[in-house]
Specification:
With 123 residues, the protein is an alpha/beta fold. The chain has helices spanning 37-40, 53-59, 66-79, 81-92, 110-121, and strands at residues 9-13, 23-26, 44-45, 97-101.
Length: 123
Amino acid sequence: MTNQQLGQLTTARIYDEPVEGRYRILVDRLWPRGVSKEKAALDEWLKDIAPSGPLRTEFAHMASRFEEFTTLYREELDEHPVPVDHVIGLVREGRDVELLYAAKDREINHAQVLRAYLLEHVE
């Protein structure tokens, strides 16, 4: 399989305007505040691919905990292959997938960890 056949895998805040042609997946366990289902324009909501409640609470979006969070979240992803394989399958089909999250920080959040993890496993 060549890279030309693979779709793009991007991240965006759920509050950003939708981009035409992207398959939008909310990857948060909780529904984001202030966003209607219509405005979200989701294709699907994969709660099971989000970090567990205890891990999310312990991380609390603190930069000082991000490295440890990344390690623990990747271990959780290893233990839950079904939602991971689903997203990988979409990318392999050539779909442009956008992973949506509600966190304010665009760099230090679980969607960035998830994207890197998926890209490692897509080929």
